[in-house]
Design goal:
5 helices; mainly alpha; 2 domains
Amino acid sequence: MDFTLIIVIYSVVSAGFSAYIASEKNRDGASWFFTGLFFGLFALIAISAVPVLPDQTELEVEAEVVRDKAKPIKETPRILTQAEIQKKEKRKIVTAIIVIGIVVIIAVVLIFHSFGPSRPL
């Protein structure tokens, strides 16, 4: 079986599972289908980690209850402490490193696949 066919089958299966899991968690199945198509196992892990969204009807009922009980208040902006700012910056750096790592892994796999040993015809 050709390696390209295996990758296509893997991508489509990952996309299907990602879309199914997303729809079960009240998320957009089409978006997760394409995410699963391009990112495969990483998309499956990501959609498995996100929490379930409540149904739209539940949200509307909750919003109505809150609206009935709500009193207008004046909120003051919250000032972040230096530790909170540093924590957010560290999170951004870690996220960037993870994304760069994934891109590098994909690039290495594609390069090795492109320039790998040639197969006889």
